[in-house]
Model the fold of this input.
Amino acid sequence: MRTSWADAVATADSSAAATSASPSNVAAVSVAPSRGGGRAAYVPPHLRNRQSSSESPAPSPAAGPSGAGQPPAFAAPSPAGGSRWGGGPIRDVGRPGSAGGRGGGGGRHSRIGGWDRREREANPFSNDDDTTEADFDSQENSGINFDAYEDIPVETSGENVPPPVNTFAEIDLGDALNENIRRCKYVKPTPVQRHAIPISLGGRDLMACAQTGSGKTAAFCFPIISGIMRGPSGPRQRGSRTVYPLALILLPTRELSVQIHEEARKFAYQTGVRVVVAYGGAPINQQLRDLERGVEILVATPGRLVDLLERARVSLQHIRYLALDEADRMLDMGFEPQIRRIVEQMDMPPRGQRQTMLFSATFPKEIQRLASDFLNNYIFLAVGRVGSSTDLIVQRVEFVPESDKRSYLMDLLHGQRDTGVHGKQALTLVFVETKRGADSLEHWLCMNGFPATTIHGDRTQQEREHALRSFKSGATPILVATDVAARGLDIPNVAHVINFDLPNDIDDYVHRIGRTGRAGKTGRATAFFNESNSSLARALTELMQESNQEVPDWLARFSTAHSYGGSGRHRRTGGARFGGRDFRRDSTFSRGGGGGDYGYGGGSYGASSGYSGSSVATSAWD
Ligand SMILES: Nc1ncnc2c1ncn2[C@@H]1O[C@H](COP(=O)(O)OP(=O)(O)OP(=O)(O)O)[C@@H](O)[C@H]1O
Done:
């Protein structure tokens, strides 16, 4: 079985008419397979005797923990110790100079489940480029453009919202965590971090909606790690193989769980807080061994977690923090039953006795409604950029008939090559609809001299991880993927996202294009649109307008033609806005109805105070 593009190229018969045919391949068929290294003969579009069907768009806090909130029973001791967020002083374990020392797995030695005294904690930063300790002081996280965040619109609703912070220094996260923030080269908090971290440290439940690539991972990891460091130790586990994590982070895909585990390990390095990952497709025995060595934060996919719960190897009895990343995906039809089982039907403390945080870049109202079952007196936070969440991403939509897609793709890739935009510094992610389509396109690209690999649900986990590594390293700078790669993956240098097949759901489009333009960087997204995508036209048009993108005339016409009857997930969530808006503010919600959007500038929900700075907008996404 072929496991990589290289194998594919090596085993392919160079004369094979692998470009089996669609008419579009006629142009491409004239492209000789590149085996042997020669660049394929390329037939430019103007010689292909056909008209472009596109109209060518131009390229183009002063308060402590809120009294209104109900900090869970486990909440930190009184603020007497100095944390403005109500926790006592954080024990700095494992930091240089403190007991345990650097690399010694210092810290909460007495806690079963924490780092064992005999065990050396592997340095999670050791693979990061060639950065030395000295470099950490001099660098910022690669090129993040904080100026772009200056006037970011923010909306909060809920009672007694803790005010935001401007710097990490304003928050008492403790020396060990601060040291890791420095190692990550985070100089300032991103907007979602500025708001979400104080809210979570204040003990409040949170539903947070913030643009892709804006730093949501740290926004939920920092308060969890800090809270565990402040709080009482977990239970001792005598004579039982069951482990009792204190925090659970649930994610929809295996790759994302691996990524969040790696991130969380960096943030928790030398804090004495141990992070373990459990996900499907990988041998369970290794994961069981990892768990047995102790776990405070369990990062998991739902299926594997249910397996561990059924085997009684994990108990959720002592969960203090529950975080759902990509929460709208976790609560849609695919995952909801499993999530309800984990959260409501096992032994997890009920809402109000644990702290729950839900994060995503998109939050359809119907999902917010479901999600509210898991939350207690929560704060809704929407953080967006002026104009929209994605104006750092230049979006183009091309009208491309189904049969011409490969040919168009070839144009784009040759264009990139000709302008020197390729290789490790400019990765290209191509989304397709089906697993078979992914394999077929990957094969065709390889045959035509474009090193590609693929990731989808029919590949083994080993193949998926290999593909991702190969893509990240630039060895195969094109990744053909299904929606399994649409959410959360943080891959530096993705310069171009191509929607070869558009998704049916506009929120999926938002997440897909969000694989580029991350952390303040710019990116490019191209979509191939044709009649089969008509139902998406209106939502796509609205999204592009909100993101200050040029909408081609033909798309606007499609949009008008299909504005009747377009419903459900094809429409922008929350009405004509990007991202999300607290469904509790929907004027019809209180009447038990659904549908209408809350008008601008209207009344507010409950005793909503929100952030009263001048940059408050009625919506984060207008
Ligand atoms: N304060 C910060 N300073 C600099 N870089 C940061 C900061 N916070 C996060 N980052 C970086 O920004 C990138 C995106 O962060 P992250 O993956 O958490 O985004 P996200 O909001 O979860 O995105 P998505 O919605 O796609 O899941 C990461 O590479 C992360 O290391």
Q: What stands out?
A: The radius of gyration is 25 Å. Residues 141, 144, 186, 188-190, 193, 210, 212-218, 361, 488, 490, 514, 518-519 surround adenosine-5'-triphosphate (CB under 6 Å). DSSP finds 18 helices and 14 strands in the chain. Residues 16 and 195 are 57 Å apart (CA to CA).
